[in-house]
């Protein structure tokens, strides 16, 4: 069983959306487990203090190293990566999600306030992960995003294993456009839109070619960064 542990000041936020749909079903079936541990339980005083003012001054509060470290110690498991959700972390990726999903699980430390004391990051060798170049009010939603990405990659969670391979990012390309019935649809703008002819042709080879081309064009146009990285990887492969 793949184990996810969230260290948080708001344990009641979990499983939240992860209790529904694919992830929720897998949780009930015991494919993975989720434990939300309240950091406040590890406070050293009777007021349950978990944060304090920053040395050097400035706005906001900082999560105390002693309390947070004690919480991490209590849940640490051998060979399980310890992650701190942080806007300055390495951008999270499908590739990192796949690696985490292939391991025994993950411990996710959710920051609040201005963040955590730098010394815990060092002492606990936390891997800092960001879910994007924007600021959330806490690490919980970011932790859920990481868990969700990992859980749908666990064996048996997704209906069709094949559907994972052609998805966005798996091979450096974004996904092709999808269509379903009706074959002709008139939207609120009064324009009739038909699905691309090739998709109703029944010609599997042509469908595959069309989808491939779409993926390449969409990636080149929308994500020149991904496209460039892919071209570099290709050149290296050919060497
Ligand atoms: N003062 C920080 C922001 C703190 S936000 C700064 O300027 O960078 C509070 C907490 O939310 C962080 O400690 C982190 O755990 C979480 N968080 C916010 N944005 C995030 C992001 N993009 N990715 C991952 N975690 C994030």
UniProtKB/TrEMBL annotation:
GO terms for molecular function: tRNA (guanine(37)-N1)-methyltransferase activity. GO terms for biological process: tRNA N1-guanine methylation. Homodimer. Pfam families: tRNA_m1G_MT (PF01746). Specifically methylates guanosine-37 in various tRNAs. Belongs to the RNA methyltransferase TrmD family. The keyword Cell inner membrane does not apply. The keyword Secreted does not apply. S-adenosyl-L-methionine binds at residues 111, 131-136. Keywords: Cytoplasm, Methyltransferase, S-adenosyl-L-methionine, Transferase, tRNA processing. One of its GO terms (cellular component) is cytosol. It catalyses: guanosine(37) in tRNA + S-adenosyl-L-methionine = N(1)-methylguanosine(37) in tRNA + S-adenosyl-L-homocysteine + H(+). InterPro entries: Alpha/beta_knot_MTases, tRNA_m1G_MeTrfase_C_sf, tRNA_m1G_MeTrfase_TrmD, tRNA_m1G_MTases_N, tRNA_MeTrfase_TRMD/TRM10. Its main location: cytoplasm. Its EC number is 2.1.1.228. Residues 6-228 form the tRNA methyltransferase TRMD/TRM10-type domain. NCBIfam families: PRK00026.1, trmD. This is tRNA (guanine-N(1)-)-methyltransferase. It is found in: Cytoplasm. It is an enzyme of class 2 (transferase).
């Amino acid at each position: 069983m793949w184990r996810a542990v969230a260290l948080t000041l708001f344990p009641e936020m979990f499983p939240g959306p992860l209790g529904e749909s694919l992830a929720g079903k897998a949780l009930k079936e015991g494919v993975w487990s989720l434990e939300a541990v309240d950091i406040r339980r590890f406070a050293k005083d009777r007021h349950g203090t978990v944060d304090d003012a920053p040395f050097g001054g400035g706005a906001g509060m900082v999560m105390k190293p002693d309390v947070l470290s004690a919480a991490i110690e209590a849940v640490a498991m051998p060979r399980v990566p310890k992650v701190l959700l942080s806007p300055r972390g390495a951008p999270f990726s499908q590739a990192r999600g796949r690696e985490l999903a292939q391991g025994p699980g993950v411990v996710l430390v959710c920051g609040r306030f201005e963040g955590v004391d730098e010394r815990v990051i060092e002492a606990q060798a936390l891997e800092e992960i960001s879910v994007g170049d924007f600021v959330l009010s806490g690490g919980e939603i970011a932790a859920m995003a990481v868990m969700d990405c990992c859980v749908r990659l666990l064996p048996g969670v997704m209906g069709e294993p094949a559907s994972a391979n052609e998805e966005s990012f798996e091979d450096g390309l974004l996904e092709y456009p999808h269509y379903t019935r009706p074959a002709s649809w008139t939207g609120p703008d009064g324009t009739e839109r038909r699905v691309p002819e090739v998709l109703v042709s029944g010609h599997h080879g042509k469908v595959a070619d069309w989808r491939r081309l779409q993926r390449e064009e969409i990636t080149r146009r929308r994500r020149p960064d991904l496209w460039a990285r892919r071209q570099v990887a290709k050149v290296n492969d050919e060497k």
